Amino acid sequence: MSQDLFEAARAAMRHSHSPYSNFKVGAALRDEDGRIHAGCNIENVAFPEGICAEGTAIAHLIMAGARQILEVAVIAERRDLVAPCGGCRQKLAEFASPETRVWLCDANGPQKSFTLSELLPAAFATDSLG
């Protein structure tokens, strides 16, 4: 994983709005043109109306005109490593291939990685619609 993807995720984490859980998360995605789109988690007093970091990063990606995720980095401030939640794994699967690499990072950088298919082995996809 490149340093710029890690730095984007870490910078996004610093913008987290998480006054209720104090669980700050950042995510960064690399698109098909090599651009990086980052996002942070945004909590709301009316749980579960918040947005995960991966979701805000995907929104940035789509708003920039991209449609494909090639690589993902996720970092949390209070834990050594954090993986995308189940809902975010499904959201990533909408725009990423099963082979897309998802990097789990701590303050020192990437520590572990999985393919998206390892994180979500039976993703609900268009062929699931029949």
From TrEMBL:
MF terms (GO), sorted A to Z: cytidine deaminase activity; identical protein binding; zinc ion binding
Family matches, as InterPro entries: APOBEC/CMP_deaminase_Zn-bd (IPR016192), CMP_dCMP_dom (IPR002125), Cyt/Deoxycyt_deaminase (IPR050202), Cyt_deam_tetra (IPR006262), Cytidine_deaminase-like (IPR016193)
Any one GO CC term of the record: cytosol
Cofactors demanded by this protein: Zn(2+)
Keywords: Hydrolase, Metal-binding, Zinc
Domain annotation CMP/dCMP-type deaminase: ranges: 1-127
Its EC number(s): 3.5.4.5
CDD domains on file: cytidine_deaminase
GO BP annotation list: nucleobase-containing small molecule metabolic process; pyrimidine-containing compound metabolic process
Pfam families: dCMP_cyt_deam_1 (PF00383)
Binding-site residues, Zn(2+): C52, C85, C88
Catalytic center residues: E54 (proton donor)
Reaction(s) catalysed by this chain's protein: cytidine + H2O + H(+) = uridine + NH4(+); 2'-deoxycytidine + H2O + H(+) = 2'-deoxyuridine + NH4(+)
Family: Belongs to the cytidine and deoxycytidylate deaminase family.
Function: This enzyme scavenges exogenous and endogenous cytidine and 2'-deoxycytidine for UMP synthesis.
Name of the protein in question: Cytidine deaminase
Organism: Asticcacaulis biprosthecium C19
Gene (UniProt): cdd
